[in-house]
Amino acid sequence: MSVLDRFRLDGRVALVTGGTKGLGRSMATGFVEAGAQVVVASRHAEEAAAVAQELAAHGGVRCAGYAADVTDPAQVEVLVSHVLADFGQVDILVNNAGVNIRGPIEELSVESFEVVQAINVRGPWLMCRALASHFKTRRYGRVINIGSMLSVVGMAERTPYATSKGALLQMTRTLALEWAPYGVTVNAMLPGPFATEMNQPILANPEVYQAFAARIPLGRWGELEEIQGLALFLASDAASFITGAAVAVDGGYTVW
To answer: Under CATH, domain 5-249 is a member of which superfamily?
Structure first.
């Protein structure tokens, strides 16, 4: 097998939570271009189905969209059971669904803090738990948790988000150890600033955007397609000896 062949995902099935927009959709697009069948999960059934149809047409592979709230254990179990029934396997899990609520700590409600933890931490934990037996039985799996540059550095007025992404990084490391004997790899990607829906409050303010960009060594925000290369690598057999890693995709922001 050539080195380029090791990046192919032919015959693989990828499940991407939050896969209908932003980074999730971009990664899903990259997977189908590499030959994978892709399942996108979202809280909105019609949106998930529409995106899956577009992905299938784009990549010429089978895709599907399912509605699920990743914070609900029952819905997660139903999601996984449906995917396994329809596709027979899950090879790649991308825990991408996430939310960010900003503000000074004294102005944030407990409910806001808990919402962020539920989606960003509880969701990935439930997804991994639901697929644990499947991965261990097949002795194969590629889990990619979408952390953040705020998994490793701080930023004012981001206590809910930074807390959740730090926790997700530790979950990644712990599961990497737990599942290594079964040939399952667990890694984290740590995106920096991308032009996603989550970052619209910053994008809408030119002064704030420019101040943010000035702190990035490459001098700009990331384009959505720039997330695809690392995601494909970690999902493929080319990364078979990498687990427990946290790789920044941030234009050098965390180098400071």
So the answer is: NAD(P)-binding Rossmann-like Domain (3.40.50.720)
**Pair 19, 41: CB distance under 8 Å:** yes
Give the Cβ contact number of residue 14 at 10 Å: 28
Given a cut of 80, is residue 163 above it in pLDDT? yes
Q: Annotated catalytic residue: which of 161, 182, 209, 253?
A: 161
pTM to 2 decimal places? 0.96
Beta bridge pairs of residue 194: 222
pLDDT at 23: 97
Residue 161 a catalytic site member: yes
CB atoms within 10 A of CB 219: 10
Other beta carbons within 10 Å of 218: 12
Q: Where are the domains of the chain?
A: 5-249
DSSP secondary structure letter of residue 221: P
